[in-house]
Amino acid sequence: MKRTRRNHGAAFKAQVALAACKGDKTLAELAEQFGVHPTQITEWKRHLLERVADVFGGTTHKPDAPDLTVLHAKIGQLALEHDC
User: Distance between CA 33 and CA 74 in Å, rounded?
Assistant: First the structure.
């Protein structure tokens, strides 16, 4: 019998990752308690530890948006060159 794919919410992932960070229980115990594979718990814990500084105003992830003023200037320059 095939098991359907489960999607876990952010709150659940955070709860599991925090429990893993505490270290009160082993990874196997946490996996049994939450019904998640130990590898998945390790991955969520790694993500939490990588991004915990963002909570306290650390680095902010901004999308890599190009500077539009530079692009518009380049377009104008190319349009003038094309017209000549």
Answer: 59
pLDDT in tens, 26-40: 999 999 999 999 999
- pLDDT for 61 equals 62
Confidence (pTM): 0.63
39 located within any domain: yes
Asked whether the beta carbons of 6 and 12 are under 8 A apart, the reply is: no
Retrieve residue 12's tokens: 């659940």
Residue 80 lies in a domain: no
Q: Which of 65, 8, 11, 57 is nearest to 37 (CA)?
A: 8
